[in-house]
Design goal:
Two copies of one chain form a homodimer. Chain A contains 19 helices and eleven strands. By secondary structure, chain A is α+β, with helices and mostly antiparallel strands. Chain A starts with 7 loop residues before the first helix and ends in a 14-residue tail after the last helix. At the A-B interface, helix 8, helix 9, helix 10, helix 11 and helix 12 of A face helix 8, helix 9, helix 10, helix 11 and helix 12 of B.
Amino acid sequence: MPVYNAPAKDMHYLLHDVLKVSEAGIPGYEELEPDFTSAVLEEAGKLARDVLAPLNAVGDREGCRMENGVVYTPTGFKAAFEQMKEGGWTGLDCDPEYGGQGMPYVLGTAVGEMFVSANMAFNMYQGLTHGAYSAIHAHGTQAQKTTYLPKMVSCDWTGTMNLTEPHCGTDLGLMRTKAEPQADGSYKITGQKIFISAGEHDLAENIIHLVLAKAPGGGEGTKGISLFIVPKFLVNADGALGARNGATVGKIEEKMGIHGNATCVMNYDGATGYLLGELHKGMRAMFTMMNEARIGVGLQGYAQAEAAYQNAVAYAKDRLQGRAVTGAENPSGPSDPLIVHPDIRRNLMDQKSFIEGARALTFWGAHLIDKAHRSNDAAAEGMISLLTPVIKGFQTDKGFDATIQAQQVFGGHGYIEDSGMSQFARDARIAMIYEGANGVQALDLVGRKLAQDGGKHVMAFFEMVKGFLKDNAAHEGLADGFLEPLKKASKDLQAAAMYFMQNGMKNPNNALAGSTDFLHMFGHVCLGLMWARMAKASHDALAAGAQDAEFHRTKIATGRYYMARQLPATGMHLARIESGAETVMALDAGAF
Amino acid sequence: MPVYNAPAKDMHYLLHDVLKVSEAGIPGYEELEPDFTSAVLEEAGKLARDVLAPLNAVGDREGCRMENGVVYTPTGFKAAFEQMKEGGWTGLDCDPEYGGQGMPYVLGTAVGEMFVSANMAFNMYQGLTHGAYSAIHAHGTQAQKTTYLPKMVSCDWTGTMNLTEPHCGTDLGLMRTKAEPQADGSYKITGQKIFISAGEHDLAENIIHLVLAKAPGGGEGTKGISLFIVPKFLVNADGALGARNGATVGKIEEKMGIHGNATCVMNYDGATGYLLGELHKGMRAMFTMMNEARIGVGLQGYAQAEAAYQNAVAYAKDRLQGRAVTGAENPSGPSDPLIVHPDIRRNLMDQKSFIEGARALTFWGAHLIDKAHRSNDAAAEGMISLLTPVIKGFQTDKGFDATIQAQQVFGGHGYIEDSGMSQFARDARIAMIYEGANGVQALDLVGRKLAQDGGKHVMAFFEMVKGFLKDNAAHEGLADGFLEPLKKASKDLQAAAMYFMQNGMKNPNNALAGSTDFLHMFGHVCLGLMWARMAKASHDALAAGAQDAEFHRTKIATGRYYMARQLPATGMHLARIESGAETVMALDAGAF
């Protein structure tokens, strides 16, 4: 059975040695003292390892089942959900006014990673709730907040997001679900939504669906869309549950993975809904959830890779097969462990250097969100807006690749379901698709984010890299394998942006045909920057006589690997981009 | 439900316009006239489309089941197997002396691709039989050939390969299965083998297991290994089936994919076995099967991608979502089809240019095998020996990537099992693992094949590329997008080989740490060469006033895409290789 041990030490390092959160001067960050974060991470790690991880294979094997319209989650999910609620984990970074603990998002992100690594399908029940909480918190009336948020913070009630319909995913302008205004100010919602994660289940007393629908008078396309709160059970004035609403599950989808989460077809038959936010401005309200959800999915990308990696390492140390080419390393045994072989090393280093880099990028992203929200920092808001598609798209593509590499270490045993490696791969696959398929992330990055606010944010990013290189030009440790590769990769990225500017005006296809390559380049530069920052932090720690010198030396060596072996990808992406749209668009549709 | 239409036209083009088989002067090739191959491909295509493809999802859903030691294949498999036998497809390229049709391997390869694309799990029953047939044909006594081959050619009896044991896969020296010599010249085989594809099933009267085991006196490691024929039912002197042998199935494995094929744990309890080939030289005999099997697996890599690609194209043309950025292309509809979007185009072109290039490489490889076997051409034998790990490793890695990309076109619908795209991905995954995991292919390439016969074959490969570039230096069509990229990529590959020579002597890890990168580079250069050859063939055809000009123009455009957008990967791989083993091997095993 697969194992999982939370990487609390690495998280602690990011929070305190790299991001230095307790000195950041952000409201709420003063609580993030090392002793406190250690205690939180330790407790969360125990829950992840002892309660959630053992249920991961159970959820995959059993899946969810529907009987007479009632959806049952896999054995053990309900008890685990209660444990998570009792520990207060569901409201860790929620507003204290509604029962939350008010912790910064960066801490919630660290804890979230552990839960996702341990059991991604399970954690989605609370993850979706958190997204719905955020949307109501940002856009709800005071009465709506009072009615729904305390129960959602505690996860007595869970939440969902309802966007997709059978004929429309990305193109929400085609939406058919209708909202008819009623005399009492409520709406009747009618239509079908698909791919609704946690759409129906037995973990909570009530489910608060957030549903996009078209109300009269909004015009064509996405302009006519509004967002509605549609509870499974209506809520009486006293807060007690009232009548069952006309929101029912049509079926549970059979999926490639995340079987433990009930992905539902939801039918709304004149269900009572309440407008959330402004009429006909539902897309805006939904995006509050979407951005948070996208970073959460980017986290899933490397968190699944982390779980798979831990098991690949254990297998590579345990499995005896062949001899090291440089001489036996286990001479008293019949063979050496797999980990002696250079190609296995390469495989494990690819995984390790990606995962730790992506963790740093995600934590930095969470830190930017805290800065934006808690310090009203517009520059931080702009930066995270730029980075969101990169975090989502790059980390889920590469996270899936890393998971496949981890599975590969097991040879044939990795293809057998018992090993658990297949589940990691099947589960990780969804992250490239949902919350906007990665091609849509690339389009968002190149088509919107690059030019946002006059290109201010991407310029700020380049300035940040330049500043780092300049400030550390004389740093001997960084000169050994960090500064030059980062400079080169950043120059490639700038050249690509320049190519888009010069050629995208003539023909936007010249930019869009390179969008996925650009997203990947950007991801590599981000991880290169993260590794350079971590290398600096670790060199500084070593110079200051840090106790755990081995940890820091490993960190620096892992970073040098990323710079030497992963960053050269930017040159390839640039060459592809600079070849333009011509070869991409050459064929008539009929020629495929 | 997924569709499949055999790409007979593309195959015909490769056989006659590119390889020009009927002019090749290889014994047996004179039969490969265009009319004849067209008829064969058409019939095979019908069987693939109408019989095999509709059973693909059935096999995935039902899987195989065992009741009281009897293994049942999915509904419809038996009837389809009978149809395949009746059509004579199982012996297409087998020796006429044993009932085969004696067709060249290149034609068998084309037909095989169709069957694999249509239903990979199903086709493995006959694919394994073909491998076992080859081993007996090459190493068996006349009596063994007479006893087993006719029934195996007709697939009345099927075959298996038994190498892996629970504690040993690649490292066969650890093998524990024993063979005890008996007074009558037979052996008693005792041990457990795992991952035995088609190990037990209801499709054939008898199953001929080829089993590696250790007979006394052979010494340590792989030197002591011999190969044995172990029939499920012993065969009487008159050819009738006799007693049930002690070869039984322990269980069927639950796998990520290829559910339609029974992957068995096989228990040999003093089973009667007959030595095949020389005592203690079983590895050599087994490699007869392995090389053929590896090229067959390389074919699976792109054949699964082909099936997935066809469905991705259909979906991209059908699904309306968004508008072309350059202006509506379906103005009367609510949206444009997905295929108008540049990033979808990029995705489809990646798939198409890989698949058609890999098909060309595989057909060329089959052609080399025919040349080696039918014309006793040692240079062809050396070349295909060099290319085998490239065909297996590169094409299955990239084939899986392409399948994942095809699934991505479907967005959320691709994650739902109903679409069939998940099955393609899950099935394609195994090809990276079995018949030697791809890391082992890379090791075979860099550690053995490069230096084989004093490096003669790799030199011949480089000479061939150089010769092509020289012969076509003045070719205007090829100058437009083919010659320069091929030259550059080939130079990168040579630089990598040079790096290995100069640095691998000091420390073999310098070569082995770059082995997977080298395998991928080599694959790209091979596909670049294939595309250049195809472009030449199509330019020539256009100049000669070919009827189907559109086909040839599409071919050239697809090739230009590969050269511009895929070949730049060689620079990245070279940079990784030239960074050496230091960052790869820097960590102690305990630091992972």
